[in-house]
Predict the 3D structure of the following.
Amino acid sequence: MANDSKTWRCGKYELSFDRPRIMGVLNVTPDSFSDGGEHFDPDAAIEYGLAMLDAGADIIDVGGESTRPGFTPVNPDEEARRVLPVVRALAKEGAIVSIDTRHVAVAKAAVRCGASIVNDVTGFTDPKMVEFVKTSTCGVIVMHAGEVAAPTRTHATVQLDTSAAAFVAEKAREAAAEAAREAEKPARRRRGKLLGEPKPEAKLPGGVVQPSLPFGDPEPAPEPSSEQETPAAEQATAAETVAPAPEATPAATEAASESNDRLAAMMRRSARREEAYVPTSQLRRFTLPDSAPIMRRVMGFLSDQARTLIHAGVSRDRICIDPGPGFGKSANEDIVIQRETAKMASLGYPLMCAVSRKRFVGAVSGVTEAAERDAATFGVCLGAIQAGANIVRVHDAAGFAQFLNGYWAVAKPQPRRAFVAVGSNLGHRCDNIRAAREMIAEIPLTCVSNSSKIYESEPAYETRQDAFANAVIEIKTELAPLVLLDELMKIEAELGRDRSKKAKANGPRTIDLDLLWMDGETHGGKKLRLPHPLIGERDFVLVPLEDLMHDPARFFRYNGVEVKEPEDRVGHIVGELGRM
């Protein structure tokens, strides 16, 4: 896992997985199962999303429709009204934003507002959604939502009678029953199929087959026998079909929409199955069901949908897969699926672990309240990471970032290259820079591997101040970017940097430390942006970098940074002040 070679292209971003990536959950809903209503206000949602970024989240997953068991479907217009202001604000701060939606109209609008990932809980079974993502460059998350248990069949008790008369009578009954079934077949309603059974299939342009949704239709109600009396409620219903129908009310329309929503129906069945479960005295030979049929359904669907997207024109490196824990699955089935994480990782796509606060996490930990399941969630996520999961989707992004940083520092030695810009224009400028270099070398899990010469430059942005001394220090570190940034801020404070509100943002300072770039890291938010968004316009950064690498302008352009021509930059270098 520490050297996972997979990459995930999400619009203008490219995520590597030498370290697991954290996706923070941001539900802009009034009814999500563990945090419903907490971030329903757009301003509150934006503030919380930025806080998750500053705490260590790499991606923010914004959703405007709860898909908990028994959820009420949301109109796409209402869903868009909830999420678009949040997506726009977070993307403006450089965040990698995922839109959690099954509605193509919402996905299109969110991508226009800056979302880089489309997370479809129905697994891109809507051909319109496939048509949209093939024309964009966004990353896609294919999720499995559906029952994985084989259909149950009930058998009547059989008593054997070996007499010839009984044999003849039984054959006659079978023939009569077969004739009756043939007569009723045209009127019989076709029942929905579970994932893995034959279904009607849609075709995309180019002849690509689009599988049906991975969940069955609601079971049809049994028809009353002709010998039974029709209940009064059904007589009333029949009478209404004959009488002129009144104009449909919005509430009635919404109710009808919900009854026809296949995902809502599947989740209602899942909730009823959980509530109706009663232990029996019959003993089982094994603690969990057989994994083979479950994984055939889950992995078969994920593989088929990934191939469908590829055949439609979506490049393979844009696809991530998610087995969809909790979506139509029992606790036992979810545990089986999580234990087979290595098999799913072997499919070759980035793999998501989205178990945060789910029912099965409560089942294995004994925690009833969903909001109290974060510690158990971290344990399940750690098991998935060790087996090959690349992304963890969690509600408590700050807590999991601490958990992961602690585990990773001990379990996964992984020094990475980074560049830190150093500047000073108060006091003994060169001495301040050398002192900062010595203090950076004392940061835990960090060493200084190289340093540029010290240059003098014109002041940038705030021009009415003394000239600056500038340098760039190359380091190797095993710390997470935000942890390293905190250490750099401590050095600034110790050397007398004033970061209070009364100090000018680009005014005089004894020392200024900027984390410019770190190998394999892309980050957005108020606290830290990586790569540093102003590298490309700062001459006092690009010139010192030439001492440490060949053609830094080309290097950063390759990493998606716009680099200006020398004459268009700010803070031009005017001379050399010596070596470190």
Q: What stands out?
A: Residues 447 and 465 are 33 Å apart (CA to CA).
